[in-house]
Amino acid sequence: MASKLMSLEQAAALVQDGQMLALGGNSLHRSPASLCREIARQGRSGLKLVSAAGGYNIDVLCAAEAVNEVYFGFIGFENEYGLCQGFRQGVQEGKIRAVEGS
Known about the structure:
Number of strands: 4
Largest sheet: 4 strands, parallel
Structural class: alpha/beta
Order of helices and strands: HEHEHEHHE
Distance between the termini: 44 Å
Radius of gyration: 13 Å
Number of helices: 5
Helix content: 25-40%
Shape: globular
CATH topology: Glutaconate Coenzyme A-transferase
């Protein structure tokens, strides 16, 4: 039986430009941060993200300009750390369409 294990680089390479990704976790906890950093490093663009309560994972992709839409309930670094600057800047500059659905 063939192994289903793959490297982080191989997993991120499965994500193609323009795809919609649902990202788990809750703000700063249990998020796929390493995968998101690798997707950004690989230069993806036009991604649409879905997250109930995104934080660092969403922000790193927004700061890398890999995202053009985010569907969310909450985006932030919880009360202690404030707003996600990459996300906020992208929305304010009109580069990211924010669809809040709480």
